[in-house]
Task: structure prediction
Amino acid sequence: MGTECPGVYKTSEADAANRYGVFPGDFKLQDVNNDGVYTIDDNQFLGFKTPRFRWTFVNNFRFKQNFDLAVELYSQWGQKRIFNPAKNRDGFIDRTNSLETPFWTPDNQLNNYARLFSSDGSASFSVIRKNSFVRLQNITLSYTLPGNVLDKLSIKGLRFYGNIRNVGVFAPDWDLYDPEPRASEGDGSEDDLVPSPRYYTLGLNLTL
Result:
């Protein structure tokens, strides 16, 4: 449960923002009963933290007799996640290195990111974003030496392979680092939104 956050106040909405103790460039909250204050009566169901459905695709292809290609994708859809960096006030922005995010200005009045050092006014809320995604998790290409070559080398098997893990991710509503949360997510601050590393592996399997 929470209060819907439909956008960011524009300069032309200064009077409406002032009604709730905030300014143009701050996030709007939906005053459901329009009584001029945010209370528990304005709470709404905003969605699910866990995916509504998941799917996984794994396939192995063999071509030219000795080459194998393995591909793994998985996806999670229908969930939402805290995205408080959109408030643009994590830490001391003007004095420390921090995550670079878009921000609202009078000349660039965004509707999904607030101004620098934005205010919540008298409310306390988190920005919620959809984080459905499709991830290409693994690609492995391998080559196995044919039997006639193995006989000449007097070995039973030799396979060369290359693997890429976390190849890429498609997330239409999530534009910052990895949409998939870590095992223990905190309050949606910068520390909870981190890039996922991509791993490259080269190797061989030798059977004597």
Observations:
- The chain has a mean pLDDT of 88.
- Residues 65 and 126 are 55 Å apart (CA to CA).
